[in-house]
């Protein structure tokens, strides 16, 4: 089922790629992050899971893109959304509900203070392998 317009984002978290090159050469959207920090204190062992959401396109037609779970976006991360060669043209959105995002912290390691991370999103101009 295709979804267009305002239905694509709505109450979802999402990542999107717009491939208007006309070559359908494929691509990969990767995410990685820094450890959770509070000042100079690192929250050891924390993980941030991003789910394989629902792939929707602007046209509502399947363009061959694939969403994948990133088991831990902190550290090396992984590929969240990709398209193999000959696929992925147009606007592609990977969407998921906020409840599907999981932050896991080892018991007894966190203190009552604010922790932050920086996520880096990288779009590779190459097909998913």
Supply Rg.
Answer: 16 Å
Beta-strand content bin? 35-45%
Q: H/E series, N to C?
A: EEEEEEEEEEE
Number of domains: 1
What percent of residues adopt helix (DSSP H or I)?
A: under 10%
**Biggest β-sheet: count, sense, barrel?**
4 strands, antiparallel
Shape: elongated
Number of helices: 0
Q: What is the average of the pLDDT values? A: 90
**Structural class of the secondary structure composition?**
mainly beta
Q: Span from first to last CA? A: 26 Å
Number of strands: 11
Order of the strands making up the biggest sheet: 7-8-2-11
Low-pLDDT residue intervals, each spanning 5 or more residues:
1-8
Mind explaining what this structure looks like?
The chain has one domain (12-36, 44-103, 118-124). Helix content is 0%, strand content 40%. The chain is mainly beta. The model is unreliable at 1-8 (pLDDT under 50). It starts with 12 loop residues before the first strand and ends in a 5-residue tail after the last strand. The radius of gyration is 16 Å and the shape is elongated.
What is the secondary structure topology, with strand pairs?
Elements: E1 13-19, E2 27-33, E3 37-38, E4 41-42, E5 47-49, E6 54-57, E7 66-67, E8 75-83, E9 90-96, E10 102-104, E11 119-124
Antiparallel strand pairs: 1-9, 2-8, 2-11, 3-4, 5-10, 6-9, 7-8
Keywords:
three-stranded antiparallel beta sheet, 129 residues, mainly beta, disordered N terminus, four-stranded antiparallel beta sheet, single chain, 0% helix
Summarize the structure.
The chain has 129 residues and is mainly beta. Helix content is 0%, strand content 40%. The radius of gyration is 16 Å and the shape is elongated.
